[in-house]
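The methods section describes the discrete structure representation at length, but only in general terms. What matters is that the chain and its backbone geometry are given together, residue for residue. Nothing conveys this as quickly as seeing an actual entry. For illustration, here is how one protein appears when written out as sequence plus structure tokens:
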Amino acid sequence: MTHVVAEIRYTATPEQVAAVRPEHREYLRGLHAGGSLVMSGPWADGTGACLVYRVEDEREARALLEADPFSREGVVEVVSVRAWSVVVGG
């Protein structure tokens, strides 16, 4: 297993993002309960979010991102998806 960090950016209006947020957060809670998502949360400036996955590889993280209601409803774009070598924690 490896850690993969994804950055997403909101591309829709705050109202459109807010309309999808409950389904998005329910999806993330399921991933967290299943062990695929370590942590996630929005940037303090409200422009997007960071998600940290524990998965087999970047491909699996990208598949989880594609299945996310935020992606499905087109309110975000994926800025980056990168494997992360954790040194402390994790």
